[in-house]
Amino acid sequence: MLEHGGSKILPVIPQLIIPFKTALNTRDAGIIVVVLKVLQQLVVSGDMIGEALVPYYRQLLPVFNIFKNHKINVGDKIVYNQRKRLVLGDLIQETLVRRMYIYLHYIYIWYIYKF
Length: 115
Fold this sequence. Notes:
Blueprint: H1 2-5, H2 13-24, H3 29-44, H4 49-52, H5 57-67, H6 88-99, H7 102-114
Helix pairs in contact: 2-5, 3-6, 5-7, 6-7
């Protein structure tokens, strides 16, 4: 749907926020990983989708703030979860900085310091 939706995706964004918020509020790492990957695909699937998500950051960012430091530090050992993109902290960082426009990161930082 995301690959072939094109301009039909943008009007549906407000209806997607409640399921995203519900899934993030489960605070289950596996579910959050899936939501982050879907958000990344959503942003790159059409024009202006990143900007359409801006009004809903207040609903999505608090859960990202909780899990942003969930990173694996094993020293010099191999962690295969990194290859599969299952490390939650790294995936949140990737979603906020690389996929969802750089100004999202600044809004995220503003949100952390304000609250």
